Amino acid sequence: GARHGALRAVRDRADGTSEVWCRKTVLLMNSSLSCLLIPRRRRQHIWLTPHELEIRLPEEQGHLVTNHTNHNSTSAAALRRVWNFQVHGTSPRLQHPCGVLDFEISMGRLTFHSFWKLALLGTGHDAFERPYEEQPGQWTLAVSACFGQLSSFEERTSRLLQQKALRPFLVPSSRPSLSRARRKSAPRSLGGLARGEVVVKPEFLQPSEVSRLAAWEERCAFSVERSEEKNEGEHCLAQGCVAYCGLWQMVQAARDDDLQLLLNVTDRASRLVNDLASERISAFEFAGKVWPHWATFQHYLPGGKHILHPDTDKGEHCMSLAVSFSTHGVDFTGGEIKIYECPPSVPDCGNRGRSRTHVPKEGGPFARKLLNGTLLPLRAGEWLWDGEPEAAYHVRQLLRPASGTAMVWLSETVHQVEPVQGGHRKSLFYWFTCKEPLQDAAFDWTGLAQRLRDPTAAREKRSGARPPREGQANCAGLSETWRRVRLRGLIGCQGGEEDGQGWPKKSQGPAEVGKLLRAQWIWHGRR
């Protein structure tokens, strides 16, 4: 080709060091997705102008828009080392249990392919929406199975954030924050919560909201915990006395305006925790704000507990909020929350310490020598946190949950749920992250907000059709794509007797999926 004056494109010969990074690992179908391209050659960053770079995506997978705005220049022809682009109406190629976006990237003569895997919600395909048997006797959902394959996202994001030149592109709203050394020496006069402090907010939920959330919790398909950390007694170890319904299962069981209620409560919770967040957070870098990362319904039966722990084990969680649906002494006994002050022997307690060990059940006697020389007897089989027994941790507060009341603490605060003695202890728990790029790492918060609150922004880019309104009475008039996606449970679309759009009269939607899930994951004492 060269002798005829034409340059031949070289395909699929990239050295693999150019990188595509997107802000989500869990995607609500047909929502928007923001991504970055970091072009490299031989592992070295390279600078390109717009005419040297082209990013393409199959039309059926979404509408790709490249952002030519440069952070350092208003000239579209300026050299750039990072390229922002968005995908609207994102509909990845289905490759069970994940979805895949297939990018084709041209840099000058070089053309190569890159892909981005996503766990999907709201596909409308039975293989993705119904539980399946991953291993004999082990049932799961595609979103959960795929998310387990994407565990490197958090580490990869942290690695990119460590590169100062890339940070403004990953966190556009970031501002300079205190260094770790300055945070540790920050004066006590700083506002906000400190480790071990708790703010209790009565009437955080109205009684009607508690009733709606409790009804939603009853429909939810729970995954049961049978570990020693969360169960006391042979019966609970065998059957499981603590169960969780995370966001993915919550979506499956959602009805009508449930998800709108969740967003309203999440906004309220976000305002509260951000009023209390400050540079006194020491577990992770605080950039002036926190974002919701994960939420779950929690249900404790008699014998259910949760041993000494902080909440900093994943997602760079830095703020925690629990709101109860039941009242101590009325709906349940036991189940108090103990808030601990860390012993001097664990100065970084709750930050990065995640060491849970057992005292041997045989042999002994065993003891732990404290810094002052005192010997502290250890019980056979008891748990140690960072090498210290529960007796080494001073109880700072004892919290008794009440219906509608919220409690907020720093995620680095070490706490424990005492064994429930009777009744049912129910709550909704939130974890907030200090790292903005991790906001949508486990759930598509921004996509759900876009879908429910800004239907114009969620408009289908290719066909111009709009999603149905929240609480819409029937499915008539929906576009072919929206019927294919079948977001019945996410937007409250209820099939009528004659919807005229191919919907069955009795939906196999979230309620039926929830029933199927409960049939597989039902746990004793719930009904």
From TrEMBL:
Q: Which residues form the Fe2OG dioxygenase domain?
A: 291-434
Q: What is this protein called?
A: Fe2OG dioxygenase domain-containing protein
Concerning Pfam families, the annotation shows:
2OG-FeII_Oxy_3
Annotated region described as Disordered, given as residue ranges: 454-474
- What Gene3D superfamilies would the database entry show? q2cbj1_9rhob like domain
Residues in the signal sequence: none
Q: Which UniProt keywords apply?
A: Dioxygenase, Oxidoreductase
